[in-house]
Amino acid sequence: MLTQKIVKVGIIGGGLMGRELLVLAGRWDALIEHPVRPVITAIADTSDSAREFFTKAGVSESYSDYKQLLESKNVDVVYIAVPHNLHQEIYLAAINAGKDFLAEKPFGIDLNAAQSISDALVGKKNFVRVSSEFPFYPGAQAALKEVKSGRLGEIVEVRSGLLHSSDIDPLKLINWKRQKKFCGEIGVLGDLGMHAAHIPLRLGFRPTSVFAILDDIITHRPDAKGESIVCDTFDNAVLALRAKSSESIREFPMFWEMKRIAPGEINTFYFTATGLTGGVRFSTRNPAVYQTFTLKDGKQIWSEIQPGYNTNWPVVTGHIFEFGFLDALLQMWASFLAEREGSLGDRFACASVAEVLDSHKVFAAALNSHQSRGQVLIA
Ligand SMILES: NC(=O)c1ccc[n+]([C@@H]2O[C@H](COP(=O)([O-])OP(=O)(O)OC[C@H]3O[C@@H](n4cnc5c(N)ncnc54)[C@H](O)[C@@H]3O)[C@@H](O)[C@H]2O)c1
Question: Could you tell me which residue ranges the Gfo/Idh/MocA-like oxidoreductase N-terminal domain spans (predicted)?
Answer without folding.
Answer: 7-130
